[in-house]
Amino acid sequence: MKQILQTLVGICQAALLVAALGFGINAQANEGGFPLDTAPNRVSNNASLQNGAKIFVNYCSGCHAAGSVRYNRLRDIGLTDQQIKDNLILTDAKVGDLMTISMSAKDGKAYFGKTPPDLSVEARARGTDWLYTYFRTYYKDDTTPTGWNNLVYPNVGMPHVLWQLQGERAAKFEERKDPHDADKMEKVFVGFEQLTPGTMKSQEYDDNIADLVSFLSWMAEPVQLERKRLGVIVLIFLAIFTLLAWRLNKAYWKDIH
Fold first, then answer.
1. Calpha distance 86→100 (Å, rounded)
2. Which of 18, 21, 71, 145 has its CA at a distance of 20 to 30 angstroms from the CA of residue 101?
3. Residue 74 gets which letter from DSSP?
């Protein structure tokens, strides 16, 4: 009985540890780099996910595939097959096909210096906070091949495909003494300067990026809401069962000295 009790306690501790690690992924995703903003979590909001899907297919899917997801999976965010076909499939693909693209990995590397990643798994690889901050920290830089740079991903090969929505911005930096070495100077970011207006206001742009990132997060794990719901049920069950096992163990050994 004692061994059973110890096993149950170990299971609960392991489950809680996994949950804690999962919650901490985004917070550590860019340790030592540009500070990350917290991404709004809208994976339970179908309207936001549908808007994110629209932004994805119009601005991202030309270069980035989502090869782990089929178009018909978008039924889970409240879309019908006809809506998917009419609004989100821009090629001759079928509703049951994977969300792949025509550009090969070889061509992508030749165009951008690196093969564009598959975005069906990018939210799990990078974290939603990283993506949310990344899409919002592009700035003009004439020294790069694309004319763009990024605070989260310096010298990024991908141009700012959403620049028409956000407008063109310049990053302002200041030279300051390195706090770790008084003999050195470091370049510190102090803000953005809007060069040309975009079609969206700043808050509207951020709101749409939140929808896009939420959609990328949903694609990375379409069943995540169900997983979390079941996880809570399992933890509650284990806690109750552990309590019952503890009381049973105490009752069993009470008359044995």
1. 17
2. 145
3. G
Label residues 181-215 b or e (16+ Cβ within 10 Å = b).
Answer: eeeeeeeeeeebeeeeebebeeeebbebbbbbbbb
**φ and ψ at 125, to 5 degrees?**
-75, -40
Work out the number of other CB atoms within 10 angstroms of the CB of residue 76: 13
pLDDT tens per residue across span 81-92: 999 999 999 889
Instruction: Tell me the two tokens of residue 239.
Output: 């806690």
DSSP H helices, the chain, are 2-23, 46-55, 81-87, 105-112, 122-126, 128-134, 163-166, 202-220, 224-253
Q: 59 Cβ partners below 8 Å, 6+ apart?
A: 161, 162
Residues, the chain? 257
pTM here is: 0.79
In single-letter form, the type of residue at position 63 comes to: C
Q: Are 225 and 44 in contact (CB under 8 A)?
A: yes
Would you say 248 and 1 are in contact if contact means Cβ atoms under 8 Å apart?
A: yes
- Residue 252, token pair as written in the block: 């069993």
pLDDT digits (tens, 9 = 90+) for 28-57: 445 558 999 999 999 999 999 999 999 999
Per DSSP bridges, beta strands 167-178 and 148-150 are: unpaired
What are the start-end ranges of the E strands in 71-208?
98-99, 138-140, 148-150, 167-178, 181-197
The residues pairing with 191 across neighbouring beta strands, listed in sequence order, are: 172
Tokens at 50, concatenated: 């549908």
